[in-house]
Every structure is written in structure tokens, then in C-alpha cells.
Amino acid sequence: MAQFHSHLLHFAIFYAIFALATSPSFVVAALNREDFSIVDLDWNLFHQDYSPPAPPPPPPHPPSVSCTDDLGGVGSLDTSCQIEKDLNLTGDVYIEGKGNFYILPGVRFDCASPGCYLTVNITGNFSLGNSSSIVAGGFELVANNASILDGSTVNTTGLAGDPPPQTSGTPQGIDGAGGGHGGRGACCLVDSKKLPEDVWGGDAYSWSALQKPWSYGSKGGSTSKEVDYGGLGGGRVKLDIKNLLEVNGSILADGGDGGGDGGTKGGGGSGGSIYIKAYKMIGGGRISACGGNGHAGGGGGRVSVDVFSRHDEPQIFVHGGSSYSCPENAGAAGTLYDAVPRSLVIDNFNQSTDTETLLMDFPNQPLLTNVYVQNNAKATVPLLWSRVQVQGQISLLCHGVLSFGLQHYPSSEFELLAEELLMSESEIKVYGALRMSVKMFLMWNSKMIIDGGGDFAVATSLLEASNLVVLKESSVIHSNANLGVHGQGLLNLSGPGDLIEAQRLVLSLFYSIHLGYGSVLRGPLENATTDSVTPKLYCNSEDCPAELFHPPEDCNVNSSLSFTLQICRVEDITVEGLVKGSVVHFHRARTIVVQSSGTISATGMGCTGGLGRGNLLSTGIGSGGGHGGKGGAGCYNSSCVAGGKAYGNAELPCELGSGSGNDSSDAFTAGGGIIAMGSWEHPLSTLSIQGSVRADGESFESTSIKGKYTAVKNSSGDPGGGSGGTVLIFLHTLDLGDSAVLSTVGGYGSANGAGGGGGGRIHFHWSDIPTGDVYQPIATVNGSIHAGGGEGGNQGGNGENGTVTGKACPKGLYGTFCKECPAGTYKNVAGSDRALCLPCPVQELPNRASYITVRGGVAETPCPYKCISDRYHMPLCYTALEELIYTFGGPWLFGLLLIALLILLALVLSVARMKFVGVDESPGPAPTQHGSQIDHSFPFLESLNEVLETNRVEESQSHVHRMYFMGPNTFSEPWHLPHTPPDQIKEIVYEGAFNTFVDEINAIAAYQWWEGAAYSILSIIAYPLAWSWKQWRRRLKLQRLREFVRSEYDHACLRSCRSRALYEGIKVAASSDLMLAYVDFFLGGDEKRSDLPPHLHQRLPMSFPFGGDGSYMTPFSLHCDNIITSLMSQSVPPTTWFRLVAGLNAQLRLVRRGRLRVTFRPVLRWLENYANPALRIHGIGVDLAWFHATACGYCHYGILVYAIEEESSPTSIRSFDGAVWTEQESRLKSTFEGNLLDHMRDETLSRQAHRNTESNMRRKRLHVGILDANSLQMLEEKRRDVFCLLSFILHNSKPVGHQDLVGLVISVLLLGDFSLVLLTLLQLYSFSMMDLFLVLFILPFGILLPFPAGINALFSHGPRRSAGLSRVYALWNILSLVNVVVAFLCGFVHYRTQSSKKHPSFQPWSLSMDESEWWIFPTGLVVCKFFQSKLINWHVANLEIQDRSLYSNDFELFWQS
Questions:
Q1: ∠ CA 1438-1442-1444 to the nearest 5 degrees?
Q2: Contacts of 638 (CB under 8 A, 6+ apart)
Q3: 130 and which of 105, 274, 307, 317 could share a cystine (Cβ 3.0–4.6 Å)?
């Protein structure tokens, strides 16, 4: 703008000069007029631009002066000429030679008359010594090298000759104005009819000689007609140096100062011309062509520097002179042209001025590279239709001003073309229109003011910056006409105060626009007056402008369109400041982000009238404007007037909001404007709002007087509120943040009863709504959306609410934001109404299922659902168990199929077992063949096998005594031997060595602590494993004892040398159940004792303790090996003894620990009825007794064998284990029974004493006691077995035979048990994984282990092994009841927690925990396990007692078998 002004103004000046030359009388007459103004010349001002005439050819050079004769120097000009003394010349001097020319230090070489011209043309070197000077009107130097040393001066200040003809550099009149040259001279004349820029002194000239200036400066004006006080212009300096130029002094061509009273009566002369050409220049001297000071300062001159290489930067000044009468208006700056970079610098040295430097005839050829206007310089481009074009940069710095055109004639267009336009605290003024094209446009606290002058023909300015536009620190781009800002990079309004505004503003083609906090985009201007370029709003049209939906693609500024602010073809837009306009449109944008501080507003920017304008009462009370809803009624003293009507289409709104209607008054309100984002063809990709987007109606403010686009009359009233405008958004996705506000609310009416404005309209026109599996939520709405009506004042009514709508949603989606229909509903038509989402049919929803939302919503029935837990399976939400059951036809059919399958599998299993194992059942009792090694009439005990398989008579013949270990061989009560040797072996052992032997044996027999700890842990986790662990450790302990006695012990306790040498006098053995151990002592053969070994009757009475402890796993049994058999055969036939042992063991199997009082009675009866009658004929009798009571109260049970003598005479009495026996049976029995009672009483007393003091119990030793019917009543036992409570279920029984049938039933039950276990686990899995884990791990895998244990037992070889494994199987079976109880508890808890949940349908006979049949499978398991226990008992009995005649009630049959 400033450039255009400068061009036009310069043109006017030159035109005036031309008129002065061609018609002096006209000019003189004009100058004599007091009201003369440049405006009066407008009749012929713009017909042609001024072009100064070509300069005349230079005159020929005069002859050269002589060095010595004319100049008084030393030497010759062809060799070396030295000027040693001052020289005052009176005329022009031409010096030429082939040598050097030196002016020595301190010498003055002067020609001090104006216009005096000195020329030095030498081929050698030139030197101006220190503190020397050359003073002349003009100085020209041509030399090879030149030096202007420190303190030296080439001074042409105020010595100018005549300026070029036909120039107006010297001001006319007596205003004391400054002379002009490179810049205009200042003028301190104050004319109220003129602008400060229109008043100047001498005009600028010699623009064509910018690169090689050669004009004198002009003289300043005078304030007196009588005396000329004006200062002379600056002279001319030309330095043409072939090589090196050194400038450490001064080169001056300043204008002369004004004269009179310190220069206050005359204007300063303008600066002259300095032209320097050299290959290389050094030094930091001063080069100056400044204007002179005076009443008004002179304009700066012109300096051109054409130096290829500059190593130092000299000080170059071209600023205007100071004005003493108007200090704020110095002379205009001159020009500095740097030829190598082709840069033009206009620098006023920070002197403020209103006077301008003219920039003429752009673009220069070749084009300038850079132009700098800085330090308060003002440059202007005055010529019409001018183009300012440079190849590089235009910089306006430090309050520099560039003007285009004249303010009085803003009717031209200007062009500015450059690579970069940089503005820092500067200003560009355009009068007319500007077409700017740069690559980078940067503004720092600067302004660009475009004044279109209201001319529609030149109303549009276009600013194009292809790479970058940045406004910072309150920079402003302002146009009172149309403005387009285009680019391909970034537009950044950085912060507070940054502003781009115009009557119609278009920002286009940028990749990104960033509107920082506090910055503003506005269109139209605030409080703008109506003219031809003011946007016209379509307030009374019922038709929507087509460009709102289908805007043009070219993004040009088009006054015929309805937009007042358009952002077009910009990829990303970020708003942290304010975007405000009447019709704001975003076209072909990709993303718009409105930050929390950002606002896009059309509030109060709509119509003051409009289709829904309010109405007035006669009192001036108005109703509210209507739009999306009716305006509120205005009421005063019960008189009301209806509000404005509602209008427009809610499904595709495009109307401006209406105002109060009384726009002829100074008190009125306007409706909201339009904010349109996107278009039908090009919707936004993403709109993110954290701030606000508002098109609210205007509220009345009683204290404000508003200027609008229509004429305003001085009247007053109480208007209603304006209606809300329109927010129309075409988009793909929306993100409305927590602090976001999207609003088209109506304005408030005045407090005197005016009505509120109706709400506006908000519409979201979604584009390409994804459906089905590709659906993504298109809106995230956390902020506020308002379209309510405004409140009325006092009695005034509120405006009706507006509308918030969205494009009709496809099937499955509903609402403004096209959300998925809620779970349990479906929508099979297009539309947005919530009522279109219909409930899904209830009968299609299975039990244990719930409806789910699916991506894209549900468009058709059946509605999708899922089971309430992952443990239920689609499509009917059955558990795995129910799926299995209903796959096979339902519960009843499944049950029948399962039973049939189990029977079939059991048959297959039984056949396989018979093939693999063989038949265990004997068809019936059979007589024993004499001499057979294995007799099925006897229990399969290890002792009997050893008896039948070996014949070791010689060992029994040397046997002396069997000493039994005390204790049950448990971890808490291990085996141990008493230290006192029995009487039977005192003759064959050394007592001391025997005690040592006992200590070693007891040490080996003791267990480590960790063995008992492992047993305790396993007892808690899985008792069968604990039992196996105990038996394993017992077996290892027995092996260790045997190894010690056989290999390690030296038998030192024996008296026999042969026994000690052969290690054969002592042997350790144990019963098969590893609970009863004993030590046998034998003779060595070298004792030579006839009484050893003793005969059987000498040993009687003898004790035979039972093995086992009466538990299920280890029942009582009589251990009988070859030694006992051999001893007993001395009185009793072996077959009789074998049968007695077999029958007694069969009876002992039925004895249960914990119920000894009851279960020992059948044993007593059997001994009385079967054993003793058969043995009595052999002189032997047996009684049930107990032996070896320990300190812990444990004792062994067994039989006592004694002799029966027929003679009545008593025999010798023999002591046995502390008991006294007579040889007469009757006396023996009575005496022994009496002693038994005494011993039992003593035992009771000792146990009572044990409760008081444990030490007394340890000292009390009871070794033997007879058990009969009476003594059993006094028997006390400790129930230490963990299975005491289960002994009623798990116990040894009599055989039942039919082993194959029993095995078949066990197979059926085993398979049934395993099937029920699997079904139970499936049921628990349907409850929860926690329930499943609890059942599996409370007793780890106890519920699963009976099956492999049972299979292992059924398929084991040999009755004895099979019986042992069957007992383990029985243990696992009964222990698994713990897991079954846990399953009961889990089922019960789950049922109680789920029983309150009701389901729409139930499956008949469902096995789900949701119904009452949760207990079926656990109950079936309990029943199955009880039956298995019973059958296992029979199975074990059949295996261990294959001769059922052992339980015969017929005495004869028993002994005959």
C-alpha cells in the first residue's frame, strides 16, 4: 500500500514539474492561490508517468595541470607527485598522469566554491594522508589503488552545483522546506486540508541514476523573500579504483544546513551523490550523503557501492536532515545501492519522519535482489499499476514504512513479488488493491493496512505466500475490502494481538493453519459502514445459497458468494484464538481442532431483521426473533406481541438467525450467523472441539449503541433477543471434549419485558457412516450442545428451543450421533429416532443368555446374544455337561445310554481281566493234598509260604529263643528291644555286650524327624500316599536291621566262639505287615550243653504276638514261620497247626481296631470251640492275651500257648515273662485268671497314675495279660487310626464267593464312578473355575485317583498283590468323599447365590446349577462310593480267604477241610 502511495505521489510531483516547464503561467498562478492542493491536479494526474530526459554527454576533459607548476607539489604526475602543503583552488582542476598522486598528512587540498570540480585520473596509486582533506563541489578519482587514511576527508558537503534541469528538488515559496534528491525534503507547513504525507519540500529525482548516481543535491528553501537562508545541496563524489580502496577517513556529500539563527530560517539542502567502484575495499571509515539540517530537513542523497570484495563494513549514511521546526518530521531517507548483491537500502537512521522516499520505475533491470526499508524510513510507490519485484528479500525493519499509491486515490492495483517479505515493527500501507506473491511472509509487531476506498473494481487483494506466513507479537493484516490469503505451507497467527480481518476474508490452499491463543480471524469488520464491498446477507430469502452445500472448488475471492469468512482447501486447522464472521465456511478441510481457548463464532453476526424477525409494541417493547424455535413474546402491562416465527429445515439448515426487527433504532439485536464446516462432496475427516463453536443470537445490552451494516437513527427501545443461527457440519467423525460448547442459543430480551430469541439449528451431516463389522463410533460427545431459547425479561416470554439433528442413520444405528441401538433392540429402517430401535423377541433368547451390542448395531432379528459366562456354550447356552446330555437325546435317554455303555465296558473289562489275570475264585472248599506246597485252604501269608517252601529242621534244632521287638514300628513309636536279656538267653550271651547290641539295634530302628514330618504332611494331603511312604520306610528299616545283624555286627554278645566267627548266632526277621519284628538266638554248636536247646514243653508257656494292628490296611494275623512250626510239631501235627493258624487268621481279619471289645469276642469263642478242643488231645492249650505294654500304652495282642498235663500232681513251677504257671490245667486256669484280674487292676491304676505323672507310667512295666469275656470289658484302647470313624464302611469282611460277578459289579461301579466324576467336574466348570479348582485340589486329585487305583487293583497278578492294591483302591475311594463334600458345598453356595436370578425359560430336567438339580451328581457319587466300598471289602475277602470253610460253624467240617 505504501509503495502504491509512493509511486502515485512521485508521479504527481513529476507531472507538476512537467507542467511548470510547459506552462509557467499556470503554475505561477496556481502557486499564488492560498487553497492550492495536489488534489487540484487530478484532472491530468494519471494520464502518463513521468520519465526524466536522458542526461547530456559529458564535456571533454581540459588539459591536465602540472604537479610542480600548478599544484606546488614535488615530483611528476607520470612518476609520483606529492602535495606537501595546503592548496586553495579557485576553479575546476583536471589532474591526469601515469604515476602516483599523494596528498601528504595534514595537507588541505581545497576548492571551496559551489560546483568546483576536481578530477584525478592516474594509472598509479592515490593516497590522502592522515588528517588531510579535499574540499570541493565535486571530486572524481580514477586510480589503480587508493587510500583515504585516518582523519582524512573528501568533503563535498553544501558545495553542490546546479541540480539536473527539469527537477523540483529545490522547494518553492518561503516555507523553509528542505531540498530533495534521493528522498524528499521535509516541510513543516501544517495544512488541515492535507495529510502529513501530502506535504513535503523538494521532490526526489535521479531515480534512473540509482546504480550510478551523479547528481548534485538540491538547495533548501528559505523563510524569507529577502534573504536566502536555504542550505546548499551536497556535491558529487566518484571513486573508480581498479584494485584496492582503503577508506579509513570520511567521504562526505551531505546537504548544507539551513542558515540564520542556528539554521532555523532555512531548509537543509539535500544530500549529494557518492559512487564507489573498486575490486576490493577495506577500512571502517564514513561514507555519507545525508540531508542537511534546518528549519525543515533536507532529503538524503544517493550512494552506490560497486565493490566486489569488502573485508570491512564502513559506515554509510543516507538519512534525511533534522527539522528544527518539526522534529518529528525529518527529511526523507536517501538511497543506498549495493551493486554486487543488487540491494537497495532506505535507512533514515531512526529519525522519525512523515516524508517519503519515492521508489520509481520498478522493476529495475536487472532486478534488484533485496530491498531494505528500515530505521523509521518511509518509502512509497506512487505510480499507478506499479509492480515492485525483487529476486530476493524485501525487509521492513525498525518502524520502516512502505506505501503503495495515494490515500486520496485508492483506485489502482499494485503488485509485490519477492522471495521473502520480512516485517519487524514496520508497516505496509496499500491504497487500492495489492497482489502479493512471495515464498515467505513473516511479520513481527507489524501491520499491513489495505484501503480499498470502497471501489468495487479494485476491491480484492490477494496475498500469496507459498511456503510460510507467520504473524507474531500483535501483527495485523487489515483490509476494508475483500482479501484473499493463499499459500501452500503454514499460516501461523502466533499469539495475542495477531489479526487478519477484512470485509470478506478467504484463506486458502495452505497445508496447515494455526490460530494461536488471542489471535483473531475476522470477516466482516466490526462496526463497518455500508459500502459497495460490504457483504450483503440474504436475510429475507427463503432459498438456501447453493454454495453452502456445493461451494466452488477454485477457492477464489468471489463477492457474489454469501461467505464472509472462508477457509478453503486447508488440510489441518487448529484454532486457539477467535474465528468470527457472519457466514463462516470451512471448505475441503481435513481436520479442524478447536482447542480449549479457541472459539469459532458467528454470535450476533446474523440479520437484524430476517424471516423470523421480532415484533414491537407501541411502547417499544419487542419480541424475540425466531429461527429453530419461535421467539418469545414481548409483554408490557398485559399487552403482548408474538415472537418471530420459526423457519428453515431442521434436517438441512442453512439460514441466518433473525433479529429483533427494529433495525431503524439504535437499540436492536441481531440473530446468529452461519458456521458451515465441510460440504456435501468434501466433508471433514475429523472435527475436534475442546473450546466453543457458537452462533448464538445477540442479547440486548441497554448501554450499548451498535453500528451495523444498515443506517442507524437516533432512537431507543427495548428489543427482544436475536434468534440463534445455524451450525451446519458435514463430517466423518466428531470429538466433543469435556470443556467443549456447541451452541446456537437465542439471545436474552431486555429486562423491561422483551421476549427471548428462539434457539437456532445445529445439524450434523454424517458422511459415509460405516455399518456392520467396519463400524466405528463416529462421535465422542463429552461436552455441551445447546440450542435453547433465550430468556425473556420480566413479563417477556422465553424463546422456544431450537433443533439439534443429524443425518438419518442407517439400519442398526440411531440418534443424532448414529450410535448403536441398545442391547436387546434392533432397527431395520433408516432414521434417527430412538423409537425405531425395537425390542428383540424375548422367546428367541435362550436361558443363561443376555443380549449384546455388536459393531454396527442390530439390523435384523434374531438379535445377537451371548451366554452369561464363558462356561456356557452357544447357541443354546448349555454347559458342557448339558451339551453332552442333550446331544444324546436328553437326560433320560442319556442316562440309559450311559448305564448300557458302562455295563458293556464293564463286561469288556472283566473279560480282559480274566484273560490277563486269570480266575481267582475256587469253585468250593476242597480237601488239602498232603505235601502240596501251596494250599488254598490257608491264607496267603508270607510265613506260610516260607514254611511250605523251605525245610530247615537243623535251624529249628539250634534255636534257643525268639525275642520280640516292642512298639508298632511307627514314626512316633519305632521298634525297640529291652536292655535286660530274657532268662532263656542269659546262658549264651554276655550281658554287657548284649546291652551294647540293644543300643545299636534301637538306634538303627529309630526314624529321623523328617521321615515323620513327610508322613504327617502326606497324611493331610493324601493318606494312601502317606501309607505307602510309611510301608516304604518300614521296609528300608527292616533291610537295614537285617544288614546290620548279618554283615556289620560282630556278634560280640554271644558266648559261642563259633557263632561269633560265622556270624550265625543272631537273626532278625519281621511279619509281612512290617509291624512285628523279632530276634532269633541260635546255638553255635560249641557250647557242649545238653539242656540246650530246650524242648517245647520246657519252653511253654510261649507267647505268639499277632502281626498288624487291627486296622483295615493291617489286620491282626498270627505270624508262623518254619521255626515255630518245627517247635510246635514236637507236640502238634503240622497239618493241625496249619489249619489252626489259617482259621485263627480268618477270625482275626474281622477284628477292628477301635472296637476290640466287640470284635475279639468271636475270636475267643472260636478258640474255645474250635482250637482248644482240637489241641487238648495233644496236651496243648491256647488263650488270647496281650504282651509288651510300652510306656506310650501300646501293647501287642497274640495267643499264649501252654501245656495241659493229665496228672494231678503238680510239676515244677516255671516263670515266664513275670507270670507264674502251675502244671495242672485247672489250677493253672484259675490261678492265671486271678492273676489276670490283678494285673488288669494294676494296669488301670498305672494308667490313672500316668495321667498324673508320666514318669510313674514309664517305670511301670506290664508284660502279659490273658483276655477272656470278663477282662475284655475292662480293656481300654486308644483310637489313633484316622479311619476309625469310617471303619463301619471300610472294614474286612467274610468272603462271599462269586469272584467274577463281584469283579464285574466293581468294574461297573468303577466306570460309573469315573463317569460321574467327569460329569461333576463338567458341572463345576459351568459354575466357575474356582469351584473346579477347589474340588480338584482340596484333596489333590483325590476325586480322580480311585479310577486308576481300581484299574491297577483289578489287573494285578496274584491274589496277595491284588488284595493289597485293592485295599489302596478302597482308601482312595473313601478319601475321595472329601472332594465330593467340597463339590456339595460349592454347588450349594453357587445355587444360593444364583437362585434369585430368573430366566425367561427353563430346560426340562436341566442339570445346571441354576436349577435345583445341582445335587444329583454329587449324591450319585456318594452312593456309588458306598457301594464300591462294600464290594471292595468282599473282593478283598474273596482274594485273601479263598477257602470259605474257614468260617464254617461245623466243627467237623472245619477240621476235615
A1: 95
A2: none
A3: 105
User: Other CB atoms closer than 10 Å to residue 459's CB: what's the count?
Assistant: 24
Residue 1027 and residue 1374: Cα distance in Å, rounded? Answer: 14
Kindly state the cell numbers that stand for 188: 513543516
The per-residue pLDDT for range 293-333, each reduced to its tens digit, is 999 999 999 999 999 998 889 999 999 999 999 999 999 99
Distance CA 236, CA 795 (A): 85
Residue 33 is predicted with a pLDDT of: 40
1195-1231 pLDDT, tens digit each: 889 999 999 875 433 333 233 333 333 333 333 333 3
CA distances from 5 to 8, 147, 171, 349, 647 (A): 5, 43, 21, 22, 49
Q: pTM above the 0.85 mark?
A: no
The CA distances from residue 225 to 30, 114, 161, in Å, are 19, 22, 22
- Of 149, 200, 210, the residue nearest 176 (C-alpha): 200
Q: Confirm if 937 and 1445 have CB atoms less than 8 A apart.
A: yes
Asked if 141 and 240 count as a contact pair (C-beta separation under 8 A), the reply is yes
Q: How far apart are CA 1399 and CA 837, in angstroms?
A: 23
- SS3 per-residue string spanning 1250-1278: HHHCHHHHHHCCCCEEEECHHHHHCCCCC
The answer to whether 920 and 1442 have CB atoms below 8 angstroms apart is yes
If DSSP codes are grouped into helix, strand and coil, which group holds residue 582?
Answer: coil
Residue 324 pairs in a beta bridge with: none
Report the alpha-carbon angle 234-240-243, nearest 5. 140
**Cα angle: 709, vertex 710, 712; to 5 degrees:** 115
Average pLDDT over residues 1226-1242: 39
Q: Where are the alpha helices (DSSP H) in 422-546?
A: none
Q: What is the DSSP letter of 1353?
A: H
Cα–Cα distance between 784 and 693 in angstroms, integer? 11
Asked if residue 97 lies in contact with residue 118, where contact means CB atoms within 8 angstroms, the answer is no
Helix (H) or strand (E) holding 1059: helix 1057-1062
State the residue for C-alpha cell 513327610: 1014
pLDDT tens digits along 658-704: 998 876 666 789 999 999 999 999 999 999 999 999 999 999 874 34
pLDDT tens-digit series, residues 1095-1144: 888 888 899 999 998 888 889 999 988 889 888 988 899 999 999 999 99
Other CB atoms within 10 Å distance of the CB of residue 839: 11
Contact 1439, 1366 (CB under 8 A): yes
Look at residues 850, 851, 826, 852 and name the one whose alpha carbon lies nearest to residue 839. Answer: 826
| 672, 790 Cβ separation under 8 angstroms | no
Q: What residues pair up with 1184 in beta bridges, in sequence order?
A: 1199, 1267
3-state DSSP assignment of residue 1118: strand
Q: What is the number of H-type helices and E-type strands within the chain?
A: 26, 75
Omega before 57 within 30 of 0, i.e. cis: no
Those residues with Cβ within 8 angstroms of residue 1235's Cβ, 6 or more apart along the chain or in another chain: 1219, 1220
pLDDT in tens, 24-67: 333 333 333 434 343 333 333 333 344 455 556 667 778 899 99
The DSSP call for residue 1344 is: T
| DSSP symbols for 1004-1023 | HHSPPHHHHHHHHHHHHH-H
C-alpha cell at 376: 523509521
On whether the CB atoms of residues 604 and 698 are closer than 8 A, the answer is yes
The length of the chain is 1457
Calpha distance 564→534 (Å, rounded) = 9
Listed range (201-215, 406-420, 812-826, 1081-1095) with the worst mean pLDDT: 1081-1095
